[in-house]
Amino acid sequence: MRRLGVALVGAGFMGTRHVHGYAALHSSGVSKADVVAILDLDRQTAERAADEAERLLGHRPSVYTELAALLRDPAVEAIDIVTDPRTHHSIAIEAMEAGRHVLCEKPLALTVRTALAMIDTAERTGMTLATGENYRRGGANRLARSVLDAGLLGTVHLMREVRVGGDSNVIISKWRHLKASGAIGLDMAIHYADIIEYLLGPVERVWGRGIIAEPLRFPADGGDAIVADGEDSILASLRTRSNVDVQLAYLPSGPGIHFSERTVHGTRGSMSIPPDRTDGDVVVTLGDRVLTGAALAEAVGDHLRLSEATIAVLGPDGTGGKGAPWSVVDSGYLAVEIDDFANAVLSRRAPEVDGTGGLRALAVVLAILESGMAGREITVDEVLDGTVHAYQDSIDQALAASAR
Fold first, then answer.
1. Cross-referenced InterPro entries, in alphabetical order (predicted)?
2. How far apart are CA 363 and CA 94, in angstroms?
3. Residue 87 and residue 71: Cα distance in Å, rounded?
4. pTM for the predicted model, two decimal places
């Protein structure tokens, strides 16, 4: 099979993780994509990523510091965007206008307006636009979906998605505490919005808010505190189109208190799903009958389908195996995402999470944030059609100003 020439755009923390995703496919013998180039505004950062790619993949990608120069490289057929979210839409649109396919890390964009511009460009140019939603790729979430598809829980009434506990440290990077660049509340809640829609279908309406639980965030290097102006927490009740209620809480605050739950409850029983990138088990309780492991896999039968790449990089159950290092599982999730994108381009089919899928997860979280500002229930359609947009206005204004 022909291989897809991909350029990595952004070579920092997340970019390096993507290099390891390509390496997981390469070492497993199922890779359909070659990293032919790496771009970063900082040449030293790009060179370090190219060194790592050469070590893991056996060839050294070309290094660029300007997008226009990268897009003149005929070896680059597609780009993988792993930059600051403020630049996702502008980079993607320029690349698609130049005839390149795009895999874009989530969030696809920071506002509905910019996400729609990306989707419109993909439709007009005929380029593939995929959103990097990797949590759904893990074996536990695939198995959970198969439990629901098999009807083991009966009529589903409730899902709880809860992540509580943390401290006042900077989470990953400083910009993730600023509204204009996509604060961590938005960044993480989009993962959970995608999982909710993956398991239960479209969210229809929300009531909730975003808050800044830790107004000061302290860098690990001991530097000056970051004054957060973007929400670090999301608290909401959601209702899906299929009439399932969802309780969502992401609150990375409160030292000594750490609680995690992803559960689904129906008329026949309940399901507990382990945290992402861990070696926990999906457990289904049907009265006094408890199913997990091989017994659960047997119960769902053909409803559980894992791709060739999933099995190759994460094993027969798609989890990476008991005791697998976090880095191995993380690169496996990203590998499956990358493989789906490459297959979509090469086979001329839609990716599992296209631009519209990325837009929906974004719109669900924006609806929560808009609800907090409006003090009322908000429908996702109100956000998608632009009826409600107050939370996004300052972001759109900042993005427009930076483009001038």
1. Gfo/Idh/MocA-like_OxRdtase_N, Gfo/Idh/MocA_oxidrdct_glycsds, GFO_IDH_MocA-like_dom, NAD(P)-bd_dom_sf
2. 23
3. 16
4. 0.97
